[in-house]
Automatic annotation (TrEMBL):
Limits of the HTH lysR-type domain: 6-63
Protein name: DNA-binding transcriptional LysR family regulator
PROSITE patterns attached to this UniProt entry: HTH_LYSR
Keywords: DNA-binding, Transcription, Transcription regulation
Pfam family, one: HTH_1
InterPro entries named among the record's database cross-references: LysR-type_TF_proteobact-type, LysR_HTH_N, LysR_subst-bd, WH-like_DNA-bd_sf, WH_DNA-bd_sf
Protein family (similarity comment): Belongs to the LysR transcriptional regulatory family.
Source organism of this protein record: Oharaeibacter diazotrophicus
Superkingdom of this protein's organism: Bacteria
A GO term for molecular function: sequence-specific DNA binding
UniProt-listed GO biological process terms: DNA-templated transcription
Amino acid sequence: MTRRLPPLSALRAFEAVARLGSVRKAAEELGVDHSAVARHVRNLEAAVGVRLIDTGTRGSTPTPEGRRYAEQAALAFDVLAAATAALRPAGKRGELQVWCAPGLAVRWLMPRLAEIERLIPDREIVLRPTDQAPDLSRGEADVEIRFGPREAAGVRGEALIAPRFFPAASPAFLAGRPPVGSLADLAALPLVHEETREQWRSWLAGAGLDPVPPLDGPRLWYANVAIEAVLLGQGVALVNRLQVAPELADGRLVELLDTDVRLGAYVFQAGAERWNEPAVVRLRRWLIEALAATAAEHRADTVVT
């Protein structure tokens, strides 16, 4: 019997858009341009003769038919993934897939990868800096390290550290400008934002600015990108010492004002059924100890126990 199947690339693109609710996020996950993802979805809709995705101001939402189709496609991909895993030789070293908030991954965790590899020598460490949420119950990742908890069925989490966030800028940016002596002075500067301006609004309110005025500055999506922009003299970013300790130490960044505002905690999450697996336990304990050591070194951050 001949199977009439759509192109696999189109089906993968559609399933990712339906699951993530965003063409942009699907493109990032698949490592392709967002226009290619949109084209794949349109081609799939043309092939099956049914509208699968509705796109609006709030993102991309599957239609009722699209939702059912996406659920079945996800199950099929799970079957393929399991079959592929079963082909691996029994003695081959397995992977430990770690999805991590980009700022923490790039600026704190990556320099310590060798320590993790020595800690877990029987697994190949695969680190993915991303703000996307993996489906831990389906094995999309083994471990997630994110900022703030995420409620999901079958997932356990443990808070690691609640860092102090503070504004920082480069000396080049500050040169020739009036001194920043108040929160109002700070809010009037070009502020570098991540995905939204909400983090800056929350921080300014937490620091005591009332009301918080409309804020200016570019949105650059990820903390590590925002930090690079600030190092280039393009504005002021909210940072913590886990992200910028070397830059503060060598003077490439300068902390502004004297504040103590905590916006939340980094959280370690894994599937409940895998919570006590040896590799997961070793990584979790190492993170708690390493972050505690970093906090003690700077005496500025709170370890959550």
